[in-house]
Design goal:
The complex is a heterodimer. By secondary structure, chain A is of the alpha+beta class. Helices cover about 30% and strands about 25% of the residues of chain A. In chain A, a hairpin with a 5-residue loop joins strand 2 and strand 3. Classes of the chains: A alpha+beta, B mainly alpha. The interface between A and B is large, with 55 and 39 residues.
């Protein structure tokens, strides 16, 4: 070993052996045991998490957010990780709006779970605090907490079933979860791993509803006021777009109003169903609106049943039968209908079948086929008993009268958009069937207009700026053991405006003080319509409301310098039938004041020029039919003329 | 080991050090980016929550339940239809 070269060889060998050993161990660690070590390291430093996808938003027809997704946090504290427990607990309590004592009481050993969920704004000061653990969660957020909640419903989760639109469109609203790998530092703070990107979560589809937030607010407020004022047990309001079947508002009040009772609860429509009997008679050519029926002076015995009218009537036309809501008149008139024809017409109006609206718990109502009828069923059906409808079904049926006899499927969904904004569905009116001819529908609308304007039961709804057609219904309320003594459902179904319908509304009140629909449901209809007219909702085409009147009903042109601005007034179809009125003297008044005074006096108004009123045509003091056109000439003429 | 060999080892060491420095710099940069990303995400969540709160307040303030009583306390009232004047805008082709 004294030989240096030998010693050098030994050293070389030792180095070589050492290197081989190191290399062998490296191969073992890196290649053989590598995956295991990598997994252990990943488990210590990284976590793979599923990223929940935000649920699609629900919007109203004008783009207002009704329901969105928001991240909230559950807060946990680890006492041994807090740097200064006393100070940190006080800071946590302050940020979360809790008492310090309440936070301290939550500790079980070294860990405390703070109850409740907290918004990101609340937990923001706690994010960098050691020992504070935030567990994020996506929840549904409603900017208007009470807005149409029964219709919107809620997503499922936490052991609760989904409901409403959230349930009906769950698969569309639900997004696709993503995945991510997170790095954890030695303090336990997590970061996105920049080198190991997972899949991004894909939000669900946004759904634009047909609801109009303004109109919904109006209907809900009017209904709540009425239920409160009239001590009603419950109530519903449905507002439809007459030409598209889109539901503009759907309000419910009462103990069962957690679900949309306007879609899911049924009632007997009472006299609002008389128009369907009249439709059957006109459709089959068995009567005209002007055929006479004797009203039996208020009492009529049919078999073992006595039918009564509140107001004894003598001879009435079919039109007057509907206008004055004569039970006897409509029962006698429908005796010429076969059960099949009567049943078929009710069925054609959609009674007894679900409307097909996008709501998960819709009731189909009740309409028994003729082979299940008793001897008095035909008479009962004529006056709206032995048939049960939802307020939505009733609105849909009146919508057919408004829509020239064509029944439309009511819709709650207007548009569905992908997360990138692409529209994948857009609602178009869906005709179900033609129920009656457009001529019959026009006759029916005229009857309904008479209910409001010819001394019928709907006179509280008689607007002076645009005409309303509608029908009252006051029906006994049924309970589990038959009819409840002294308890009634008051309903008013209406079409607005009567001649060129844009809206269809049903107001229903259960057991209101005052009983009769004329003094309970009808004033609610009026209140809603007045407020709808005062809003600037795009759902109501005010321009059409005004201009068509002006075009169709105006007197002959007033010559050069005629009005560039027209304020129309709805004339009755038969102006002479409602009497004559004296044109008030509005000379010298500002145009607006003059128009208001002429409207109040019952005239349509056409304007020419501006400034103060110089003259009217017909002149003040002239007696003209109510609803006639009065041309108001301003002192100043348009510059262009 | 000849001087040439020592230079060679030094070069390799410098090369290895350079590689290590580049790796550490890259990791540090990634860490900073990830931290910034996380902060931005938190900021966005906070701003969204703030927006939600404000939206809720705006809607509550806009609602008839709040507006109508306030308007009535100021002597205003909901207009009856006879108090409304609808003026149609003429078409471009109208005289």
């Amino acid at each position: 070993m004294a030989n240096p070269s030998v010693r050098l060889d030994v050293v070389k060998f030792a180095f070589a052996a050492g290197l081989i050993l190191i290399l062998a161990r490296a191969v073992q660690v890196q290649l053989v045991e590598g995956p295991e070590h990598r997994a252990n390291a990943d488990a210590q430093r990284t976590t793979r998490v599923s990223l929940p996808a935000p649920r699609g938003a629900l919007l109203d027809r004008n783009g207002l957010t009704l329901a969105a997704t928001q991240e909230v946090y559950q807060v946990g504290l680890a006492r041994d990780q807090l740097r200064d427990p006393a100070r940190d607990i006080a800071a946590v309590a302050k940020a979360l709006g809790l008492r310090r004592r309440d936070v301290e009481r939550r500790f079980r050993g070294r860990w405390a779970a703070i109850p409740g969920r907290y918004a990101a704004t609340q937990v923001q000061p706690l994010r960098r605090m050691g020992g504070v653990h935030l567990d994020g969660e996506l929840v549904r957020f409603h900017p208007n907490p009470g807005f149409a909640r029964p219709v919107l419903g809620r997503p499922g989760g936490h052991g609760r079933p989904a409901s409403g639109i959230e349930a009906a469109l769950d698969s569309l609203l639900t997004g696709t979860p993503g995945t991510a790998v997170r790095l954890r530092d030695r303090f336990g703070v997590e970061y996105e791993s920049p080198s190991r990107l997972g899949a991004f979560p894909i939000p669900g589809h946004d759904v634009v509803l047909t609801l109009d937030a303004d109109l919904q607010d109006i209907c809900q407020q009017a209904l709540d006021d009425a239920v409160d004022r009239l001590d009603a047990v419950a109530g519903d309001v449905v507002l439809l777009h007459a030409r598209t079947g889109e539901v503009l508002a759907i309000a419910s009040a009462g103990p069962a109003a957690r679900s949309a009772t306007a879609v899911s609860s049924v009632f007997e429509p009472g006299s609002t169903a008389k128009i369907f009997a009249a439709a059957a008679l006109l459709h089959h050519g068995l009567a005209t609106p002007f055929d006479s029926i004797y009203g039996e002076q208020g009492t009529y015995v049919l078999g073992r049943r006595t039918i009564r009218d509140d107001h004894p009537e003598g001879w009435l036309t079919l039109q007057q039968v509907v206008e004055r809501s004569s039970n006897i008149g409509i029962v006698k008139a429908t005796r010429s209908l076969t059960p099949d024809a009567q049943f078929e017409m009710l069925r054609r109006f959609g009674l007894g079948t679900p409307t097909g609206i996008e709501y998960p718990t819709e009731s189909k109502g009740l309409l028994r086929p003729p082979h299940q009828w008793s001897g008095t069923t035909a008479a009962s059906l004529a006056i709206g008993y032995e048939v049960a409808v939802t307020p939505l079904q009733l609105a849909q049926a009146y919508g057919a009268i408004a829509n020239e006899g064509v029944l439309l499927r009511p819709a709650l969904v207007r548009e569905i958009r992908r997360p990138d904004g692409e529209v994948v569905y857009r609602h178009v009116p869906e005709p179900v069937r033609r129920v009656v001819s457009s001529e019959v529908a026009a006759h029916l609308r005229e009857m309904l207009r008479g209910v409001v304007y010819r001394g019928g039961t709907g006179d509280p709804v008689a607007l002076t700026s645009s005409e309303v057609a509608g029908k009252t219904g006051t029906a006994r309320r049924a309970g589990p053991d038959g009819y409840i003594p002294g308890s009634y459902t008051a309903t008013f179904a209406s079409i607005f405006p009567a001649d060129d319908p844009q809206l269809v509304m049903v107001v229903k009140l259960d057991d209101p003080r005052g009983v009769y629909a004329r003094v309970t449901a009808a004033p609610v209809t009026r209140a809603v319509l007045e407020q709808v007219l005062a809003t600037r909702s795009p759902a109501l085409d005010v321009q059409r409301l005004a201009s068509e009147r002006a075009d169709e009903r105006s007197l002959p042109a007033v010559g050069a310098g005629s009005a560039p601005f027209v304020t129309p007034w709805p004339a009755p179809l038969e102006p002479d039938s409602v009497g004559r009125r004296t044109v008030p003297d509005v000379r010298g008044l500002p145009l607006r004041a003059a128009v208001e005074r002429l409207h109040a006096a019952g005239f349509r108004v056409r304007l020419t020029g501006w400034g103060r009123v110089a003259a009217t045509q017909p002149a003040s003091g002239a007696a003209v039919p109510m609803g006639a056109l009065v041309t108001v000439t301003g002192a100043e003429r348009p510059a262009s003329q | 080991m000849t001087p040439r060999g020592r230079s060679w080892v030094l070069l390799w060491l410098l090369f290895a050090l350079g590689i290590l420095t580049w790796i550490v710099a890259r990791q540090t940069s990634s860490h900073v980016t990830a931290t910034r990303l996380n902060e931005l995400r938190e900021q966005r969540t906070t701003l969204e929550a703030r927006r939600a709160e404000l939206l809720q307040r705006i809607r509550r303030g806009e609602s008839r339940a709040v507006l109508v009583p306030k308007a009535e306390s100021l002597g205003l009232h909901l207009p009856r239809d006879s108090e409304m004047v609808r003026i149609t805008v003429p078409d471009a082709g109208d005289p």
